[in-house]
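INFO  loader      accepted 1 record
INFO  loader      residues=291
INFO  predictor   begin
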Amino acid sequence: MQSSIRPRRSVLYVPAANAKAMAKSGTLDCDAIVYDLEDAVAPGAKADAREALKAYFDANPSSTKQRVIRVNGAGTEWGAEDFKAAAACRPDAILLPKVEHPLGILSAAAELDRLGLEGVQLWAMIETPLGIVNIGDIARLGAQPDSRLVCFVVGSNDLAKETGVPLPKGRSTLLHWLLQVVIHARAYGLDVVDGVYNDFRDQAGFEAECEEGVVLGFDGKTLIHPSQIAFANQAFAPSPSELAEAQRIVSAFAQPENTDKGVIALEGKMVERLHLDIARKTLAKAGSTQA
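INFO  predictor   done
INFO  writer      dumping C-alpha cells
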C-alpha cells in the first residue's frame, strides 16, 4: 500500500493516560500524534487509559493532524482490548509494536476489514533483532494494498536493549540496522520515521540526531516533548530549491496538454510520472497545499 502524501516530519508521542496532554495535543504544530497505550502507560492504568482515549476521540472526532494510536502487542494481556479500543476511535492509523513477522500486520488488517474500517492504516514499529532480520518480508507488505501498511517507526531504544549494544551519541552501533530499515521501506513505498531522542533538555544533541536522520533518509522523527517539534519540522523539511523544483514539476503536469502524459520535457529534461509522485511528496513534507 503506497503511503499517503502527508508530512511526517514530527511525530509526537502522547500518553493516553494523560488527559491534560491529550487535550493540548490538538493545538501543537506537529505533523502526527501517536496516542500511546503501550510504553507510556503503566500496567495498572491500561484500562483507564483506553477509556480516556475513547472519551477524547468522542469529544474530538476530527483533526487536521494525523492521529495514530499505539497499542500493546497482540500477544500481551492488553493487546486485544487495546486494538478494539483503538479501532473504535477510528484514528488515521494504528501503530503495532515490536513487529517481527508479516503475519501480525496481516492479522490486524484482516480485523480492520472485518470491522469495516476502510480508512484506518497500519504503522509498524521495528525495534527487535527479529524485526531487522525479517525486514524484507515485512516491508514487502507495502506493495500489497490489503495490508494497510504505510509506515515504519524505528524503536531505537528497544533495539539497543534487545541487542545488548550501547547507544552512544551518533548511534554508531545502530547505523547499519537503521539503514536496512530505510532501504527496505523505500523499496516498497513505505514512509519511515526515526526513533526518539531521549533527553529533551539536550537541544544540541537532539538537533544533531535530527540532522543525522535526514542524511540517513528518514521522513521524520518521533518525539517525546513538544519542545522538539519546531526543529524536527525544520530539519526534515525540503530545501527551497527542492520545493521550487517540485512545484515546477507539479505545475507542468497540471497543464491541460500534459495531464494524460506519462513523460514530459521540462527545462531540457525528461520528467516521468514517477518524478511527479516524488514532487508531490516533497511539497507535502513542507505542508504545502499544492501537493
